[in-house]
Design a protein that fits this description.
single chain, mainly beta, four-stranded antiparallel sheet
Length: 295
């Protein structure tokens, strides 16, 4: 999901599906990308009402772009390497973007674009972060990589190990890990030092065990969350002041104190929640539906 402003919202998903609303979600244009009718588009980045980029996981992995509101899509990246699996995209601005993928030969795949997603180049293998055995990323909400500063990105991992990665820095997360279904699924960034990471075990949707990590000092220490989200969570988003929202298979939770206490506000299943880049609107998507946060 990508929320450009309070009016323009884009979503992508299974069976080659992309949706766009220009009126705050009241009406939608639904489309199936020609030639990709069986593809999972697990992330989307939109810049305005006509321009958007979608990411197909793999194998093979594709990134496509539209400049005409989804009427036509151009393949701007293709990778048929064995084991290639993209997980999420992030853009600092309308030109500079990054995509993260599961490890190949023990190192996470990272690709960069400097021309608005028109072309992509893989980062050389010797510059890619090393993964532990059984460590990977989850393509559950498109939010396991985020911009941290104007020039830096941060991403998180899961599986048998769960870490935060910032360039050459690798920080162990105090979250549930050890199985393919466990670990970190999403990170939200308030500023350089304040982050919240969510996840858990997607096979145990109601379990609160190890489903959140909160830091106020850039990962040097982690907060004791007194009342965590009420189950596995696939996405977290920073809203305003001390308010954050998180969602997953069994509902939606909200915190007004920077993550110390979470309150369940809905039992609806959603996979992703995003706030408008320019505006205040907050939308959720997943399980074949789109919702809007009303507080």
């Amino acid at each position: 999901m990508s929320v450009v402003n309070d009016k323009v919202v884009w979503v992508s998903g299974s069976s080659g599906t992309v949706g766009r609303s220009l009126d705050s979600g009241h009406t939608w244009k639904w489309m199936t990308v020609k030639g990709f009718e069986k593809t999972e588009f697990r992330d989307i980045e939109a810049f305005d009402e006509t321009t958007a980029i979608i990411m197909a996981v793999g194998e093979p992995a594709y990134i496509l772009k539209t400049n005409d509101g989804g009427d036509h899509w151009q393949v701007v990246f293709e990778n048929k390497d064995k084991g290639m699996f993209l997980d999420a995209m992030e853009f600092w601005n309308e030109q500079s973007g990054i995509v993260i993928g599961d490890p190949i030969d023990g190192k996470f795949f990272i690709g960069r674009s400097f021309d608005g997603g028109n072309t992509w180049q893989g980062v050389p293998a010797d510059k890619r972060p090393q993964a532990d055995e059984g460590e990977a990323c989850f393509a559950s909400s498109g939010t396991n990589i985020r911009k941290l500063t104007k020039a830096e990105a941060i991403f998180i991992s899961g599986g048998k190990s769960a870490h935060v990665f910032i360039r050459n820095q690798k920080i162990k997360l105090p979250m549930l890990q050890g199985k393919e279904s466990t670990g970190a699924n999403s990170i939200a960034v308030k500023d350089k030092k304040n982050w919240i990471v969510v996840g858990g075990d997607f096979m145990l949707k109601d379990s609160r065990a190890g489903n959140i990590a909160v830091t106020h000092d850039g990962g040097r220490s982690w907060v004791n969350v007194q009342n965590p989200p009420t189950g596995y969570r696939s996405c977290v988003e920073y809203l305003r002041k001390k308010q954050w929202i998180t969602c997953g298979l069994n509902g939606v939770d909200l915190t007004d104190d920077d993550g110390k206490h979470f309150t369940r506000i809905s039992s609806e299943e959603f996979h992703v929640v995003r706030k408008a880049k320019k505006g205040k609107a907050v939308f959720l998507a997943g399980n074949g539906k789109v919702g809007k946060l009303i507080l």
